[in-house]
Amino acid sequence: MEDLHFETLAIRSQSERSQFGEHSTPLYLTSSFVFDDAEDMRASFAEEKEKNLYSRFTNPNTTEFVNKMVTMEHAEAGYAFATGMAAVFSTFGALLNAGDHIVSCRSVFGSTHTLFTKYLPKWQIETSYFNVSELDKIESLIQANTKILYAETPTNPGVDLLDLELLGRLAKKHNLLLVIDNCFATPYLQNPIDFGADLVIHSATKLIDGQGRVLGGVVVGKKALVKEIYLFSRNTGPAMSPFNAWVLSKSLETLAIRVEKHCENALKVAEFLETQAQVNFVRYPFLISHPQYKIAKKQMKLGGSIVAFELAGGLSAGRQFLNALKLCSLSANLGDTRSIVTHPASTTHSKLAEADRLEVKITDGLVRVSVGLEHVSDIIADLKQALATIKVQAKKQ
Ligand SMILES: *Cc1c(COP(=O)(O)O)cnc(C)c1O
Q1: Same domain as 278, residue 234
Q2: Of 17, 317, 321, 366, which is least packed with CB atoms within 10 Å of its CB?
Q3: How many Å apart are CA 116 and CA 126, to the nearest integer?
């Protein structure tokens, strides 16, 4: 199957058929598995045989999902989690010791940031941060005890890009593990392992499910590292449920075609927003105006589903805009078939001081659109009528 394309592998890789000859993979709702005899059981527990023992360790549905993700990300091995955050936490839990140090981009998912600032310090694991515009500062942050270089690209919610090739080079030079949260791009658009990442993390809750139904997470990458993460997880219990794995494996069959359409719609939305008087600027990786357009072209196949823009008029304009939307949902998810709009300054990031918000480039008027799969004319019409309610005499800056 090696020479088959992404779409074909996503559809045609599946777990072994049962004696019933089913076409579509069945759901294996079983917490444990049986053995032929005492010797079979002994050998299985001794890991001399690759057998399912207990669904906290492995299950045919989670294995099918993981194997697809491993193939899509050009990885060696993987393990699936109940949520994206379980994947992030278990990676740190398995690979770090007290006294270790992380260098991370400051623009990371909110709960990941909370792990860095509130929980990992309980185990004497400290984190130093670089801003998206200061990759040249990374080397000065590396210490003798630094183990992990951590980043997300494109970033949330600012849609800035980090040069994966550069991060890969730095990690190699300083013997660090490069861990990339590839949730925004999906394996269809970007494969960090090709640029030197050791591990890639996904919240499968987002575009991998893509329909706003189930939570999930996955880590894929180097075999020896994944083995550590697997052993940590099989003993601490953050495993993905077989049901969610079954849903997510089905979702991967349509990942390429869905993401392709998300990107087509998002680019049109971004181009529309750029023409609007109430909008100061638009950030979308495949807009020529994106300051890192060249990096986008180098490491991404298409621009993704997330568009960020800044409304002239700040906080009140942001709230006004959200209130005026009729079609787009106000919700915390992203990567759904339904378009979702958020205003970080008044919601997800409202507890941050203004200076801290600005460090991660969240200005008062910043709006994030997760562009869905509705007809793009309907999405644009909704954004347009909501923009029209904003009574600022805005001039493009
Ligand atoms: C949502 C998200 C996560 C966390 O995933 P959950 O499945 O919600 O736990 C981590 N990283 C990024 C970039 C995300 O968008």
Answers
A1: no
A2: 17
A3: 7
